[in-house]
């Protein structure tokens, strides 16, 4: 059985019967971090479609020793027996990579947090283009930090979008979306994993629709688009002049990177877990109160777990017990 759909800018292409009554889509997978590895695993375990190539970022120095470490997608591909299909180019702009992609004879590409914007000549190589999993309800929170942005904004809901990749960042037409409630205790790391896992199921449903000629698309509302940027370490620096609620969101939004931190006696102190106490206080912002609450512009942030520079995480009470602080010393 053959089905030859045609989409604007992709040129169409034949999908071939797998021999078992279904249509197999030959997939090129592009991704790098752990959430993307979860998507790759889900596709392979599902078994309906075939991974014919995997592209991920090169090995990078990691850990205290600075030894090169393979990205999670590389490690997952090896674990799934796909190691021979992996390419780790320094950049997708290399002409040799275009030849490599063409040689895979992939029908479509799947992009999940790969880490590089694809050029027009790469986007045109596959007959059914590239489908991109993005962990937000596009057009809200385009860009590299959508999960952190949703938590920081205190959104009631978030979700995952499957879009067709275009040259403009996260601006391609929407193929499918799923909305989920945003828990009050959501943290960026676990929530990102959960959204990409959900995105894998959304993707598989879309691929099923593709094989039936039933996949539809709709343009994003450009007027509603918002954008995020790559986070830096300084984004995690706490200003105690903010309300306690906003700082508590920072603790969760910036976990695991860049972390919510402040200075104590000139050294970084990372706050790993905290809750809001709305009770007012006359203490200056940043001052630590007897119940481990920290005075803020509005309410108090009660520290539960902290990590001093060069040490392991510990309860806030244990940390404070060893400080012998002066009455006028405050977090900065």
CATH homologous superfamily caption of the largest domain:
Formyl transferase, N-terminal domain
**E-strand count:** 17
How many domains? The number is: 2
Output mean pLDDT: 92
Distance between the termini: 67 Å
Which radius of gyration do the C-alpha atoms yield?
A: 23 Å
| Order of H and E elements | EEEEHEEEHEHEHEHEEHHEEEEEH
CATH architecture of the largest domain, by name, is: 3-Layer(aba) Sandwich
Overall form: elongated
Helix amount: 10-25%
Task: Give an account of the 3D structure.
The chain is α+β, with helices and mostly antiparallel strands and 332 residues long. The chain folds into two domains: 2-224, Rossmann fold; 233-321, Formyl transferase, C-terminal domain (Methionyl-tRNA Fmet Formyltransferase, Chain A, domain 2), CATH 3.10.25. It is built from eight helices and 17 strands. It has helices at residues 34-46, 72-79, 95-104, 120-123, 146-152, 188-211, 244-253, 316-321; strands at residues 2-3, 15-17, 23-24, 26-31, 50-55, 60-62, 67-69, 86-87, 108-112, 130-134, 157-164, 174-181, 261-264, 267-277, 293-295, 300-308, 314-315. The strands form four sheets. It has a seven-stranded mixed β-sheet. Strands 13, 14, 15, 16 and 17 form a five-stranded antiparallel β-sheet that branches. Strand 4, helix 1 (34-46) and strand 5 form a beta-alpha-beta unit. Helix 1 runs parallel beside helix 2, helix 1 runs parallel beside helix 6 and helix 5 (146-152) packs antiparallel against helix 7 (244-253). The longest helix has 24 residues, at 188-211. The protein is elongated, with a radius of gyration of 23 Å. The chain starts with a strand and ends in an 11-residue tail after the last helix. Mean pLDDT is 92; it is low at 1-12.
